[in-house]
Write a structure and sequence with these properties.
The chain has 354 residues and is of the alpha+beta class. The protein has six helices and 18 strands. The longest helix has 18 residues. It is globular and about 55 Å long.
Length: 354
Amino acid sequence: MSLERMAPAQIQAQIQARAADAGEIHTVEMHTGGEPVRIVTAGYPAIPGRNILEKRRHARDHLDQYRRRLMFEPRGHYDMYGVLPVEPDHPDADMAVLFIHNEGYSTMCGHATIALGRYALDQGLIKPGPDGRAKLNLQCPCGLVEVTVIADGPYRGRVSFVSVPAFAFALDKTVEVQGYGEVTLDIGYGGAFYAILPAAQFGLDVRGSRTRDLVAAASAVTEAVKAQIPLDHPDDADLAFLYGTILTDGGDGKHTPSANVCVFAAAEVDRSPTGSGVTARLALMAARREIAEGEWRQFESVTGAVFDGRIAAHLKTGRFQAIRAEVAGHAYYTGRAIFTCEDGDPLKDGFLLK
């Protein structure tokens, strides 16, 4: 039977089998605000587990060489980011994914979620309704995220998602940061935990300072918070870790976009405004009653890309007063790739130069 006469599921099964037999990994390449999204489409080993957090642990503990091959040089680079589709276990999920980067496996990624919304529409995994909008229920390690893709009209290509419950974990906490002294910061959860504070506390400017100086300050904050502030999450202990630090311009995004830079994982710099970071920032604004429900704010990245964000709902999760945030942006295709791995290659599992 030719591929042209097969159903999409049969075609994908054939591609998967051929890629596995050839030792290949196939990907679709995208970016959101300049931040890469490498979506694996074939060739990755099956990832077992009763639920998505078990799958995340299995991939981390037993299949990590494949992450390194795709994220590290010579196939990737220090700031590469990727997506591994897996079998969903949530009854309402249309699709489930794991997120990968230079350090490991994140629990949420907004820029990748925006790219996945467009990808799912273009692959026919979801269909637009009469209003020109297509809906995707995406299962992430942090929970179910509701994605909307505008397929027609003047806003065609815009993708938004409604987050899992997000909350302010701590406000105005003081930590001792090596090389900088005492700084005051907030900790917000938007699918992942972030320390958030103005860059001005370090004499830096998000738009004007050298990236290396911003990274150094943010990385020092991350290490200080990890050492001095224990985190917990009401749903699962696997979610209770600090993903990174976001330095802001101190603005609120109401009249002009508020610039921020997110430094996450092993000092990886997000080129996008960071969807889960925007969610965490909105949760902090809500805790301080600085924003009304439904009011849109704008957040800008180091590339000048802008995400829109608003509070979609208030709720409670565990002991925390929480929100659901809606975050919107655009993603674009950059290509496709087939990656191979030769047995005699001493660098087949990748390397990083810091």
